[in-house]
Give the backbone structure.
Amino acid sequence: MAKITSWCALAISLIALFFAWQAFDQLDQRADEALARREKALVQEMEPRVREICEDYDVEYPSTSPETLEELVRPLAELVTGVQRP
């Protein structure tokens, strides 16, 4: 009887481990998707302001709308690196 109980406990533990691994994997994917959505919303919100700054300082702004923060900040980085010290 103890042998059967041990095997049942092992089987239940393995099943629980599998479900825990699945839940962890799904959480990681959901977190990545949430971060991507937040980044896209932030880029869409900030894009008009960055475009305006680029126009004010005669910095070339890409013709396509940026999708990531890196693409959004690239013209501003060119603006900052292009500033000459007196």
